[in-house]
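Quick one, tokens below:
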């Protein structure tokens, strides 16, 4: 796949006397490291980066690709969609299916994926392993490679959100061990997330909302009131604007926890609990209903 793409890019760039640094500019579209890996044949660019490269070289993309397609395989996109969209909620059958989905990607597609897609799959699988085993080393290894570039960004991509989700998972599983978590970085991410719903594409808003609610959960675990109300409101607005209510049960679960721990308002918490059950019934998720019922009993008994 695209065997000579990198060498063509390098030859054209060198012929035009353009350094990698000048070619990449502020590195918003393409980093010097990424260009070097593409030119050496170590990685394949995604469609966006390929168009940027062709534009910088002032050639048609077909000249670089030799007519080969840069579109991701349909089945790969389906598998990634299922991994991003369908939560497991610790259900044994869903966990087994998720493992099969990852196996399929690694066996059939991974070796020919662009670098950005490989990073997304690495991060999603690392989260799955951390979640399954309780061993944060699966996630820390990935975070060490890429989290520094993400944590202080002002605008997130889907990959950034996937990496942030891995950071949150490692934080919770490690019980906020300082090897995997710093409160300062977490608060910075929360403040940045609140402004992201108008900057992301519509197809990325589901995962944005997923990460937003995970940040609410972490904030509640830390007993930190900062940004919680704003994040819950942005989550609600996102679901209303996209007409996607699959996360409503979790939204109302975190709302009831907020009412109990922050506002000490049991009546409002009970109403939020009823809403969470109602939306779970709407999406016909019996496993989730049972988990919410148990969670409510624990929260109300412990109060």
């Amino acid at each position: 796949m695209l065997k000579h793409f990198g060498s063509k890019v390098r030859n054209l760039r060198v012929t035009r006397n353009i350094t990698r640094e000048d070619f990449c500019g502020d590195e918003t579209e393409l980093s010097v490291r990424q260009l070097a890996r593409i030119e050496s044949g170590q990685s394949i660019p995604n469609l966006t980066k390929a168009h940027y490269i062709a534009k910088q070289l002032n050639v048609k993309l077909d000249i670089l690709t030799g007519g080969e397609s840069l579109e991701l395989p349909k089945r790969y996109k389906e598998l990634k969609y299922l991994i991003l969209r369908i939560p497991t909620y610790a259900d044994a059958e869903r966990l087994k299916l998720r493992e099969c989905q990852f196996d399929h990607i690694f066996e059939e597609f991974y070796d020919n994926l662009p670098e950005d897609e490989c990073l997304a799959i690495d991060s999603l699988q690392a989260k799955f392993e951390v979640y399954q085993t309780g061993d944060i080393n699966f996630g820390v290894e990935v975070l060490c490679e890429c989290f520094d570039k993400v944590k202080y960004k002002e605008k997130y991509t889907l990959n950034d959100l996937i990496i942030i989700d891995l950071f949150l998972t490692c934080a919770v599983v490690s019980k906020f061990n300082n090897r995997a978590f710093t409160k300062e970085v977490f608060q910075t991410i929360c403040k940045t997330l609140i402004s992201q719903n108008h900057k992301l594409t519509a197809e990325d808003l589901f995962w944005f909302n997923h990460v937003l609610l995970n940040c609410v959960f972490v904030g509640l675990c830390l007993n930190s009131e900062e940004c919680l109300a704003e994040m819950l409101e942005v989550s609600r607005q996102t679901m209303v604007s996209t007409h996607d209510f699959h996360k409503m049960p979790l939204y109302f679960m975190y709302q009831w926890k907020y009412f109990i721990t922050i506002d000490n308002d049991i009546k409002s918490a009970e109403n939020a609990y009823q809403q969470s059950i109602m939306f779970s019934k709407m999406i016909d998720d019996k496993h989730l209903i049972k988990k919410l019922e148990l969670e409510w009993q624990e929260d109300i008994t412990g109060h």
